[in-house]
Amino acid sequence: MLMMSRNHGFERVAVVLAALATILALTLAALLAAGPLMRLLGARIEAVITRILGVLLGALAVQFVIDGIRISLGLT
């Protein structure tokens, strides 16, 4: 929606809506393919992927907290 407020004119709005539709279609395809893909890979690979993504999510959370503290204290 932020992109919509910055763009005026039919062509620019159409490009933003087309980009949103493309992302929506790619997300749908990924979600529909996730179940069969996990069955194909097996439980062990699924556990490894889950742990890796968990570590990545934790690292991002720590980085967000550090950035928030820096901004709050004016250290940037």
Chart the SSEs and their pairings.
Elements: H1 2-6, H2 10-41, H3 43-73
Overview of the structural elements:
The protein is 89% helix and 0% strand. With 76 residues, the protein is an all-alpha fold. The chain has two domains: 1-40; 42-76. The longest helix is centred in the middle third of the chain and has 32 residues, at 10-41.
Task: Tell me what portion of residues adopts beta-strand conformation.
Answer: under 5%
Our measurement of the CA-to-CA distance between the termini, rounded to an integer number of angstroms, reads 29 Å
State the major sheet: none
Structural class: mainly alpha
List keywords for this structure.
flat, 76 residues, 89% helix, mainly alpha
Describe this structure in a few short sentences.
With 76 residues, the chain is mainly alpha-helical. The chain is 89% helix and 0% strand. It has helices at residues 2-6, 10-41, 43-73.
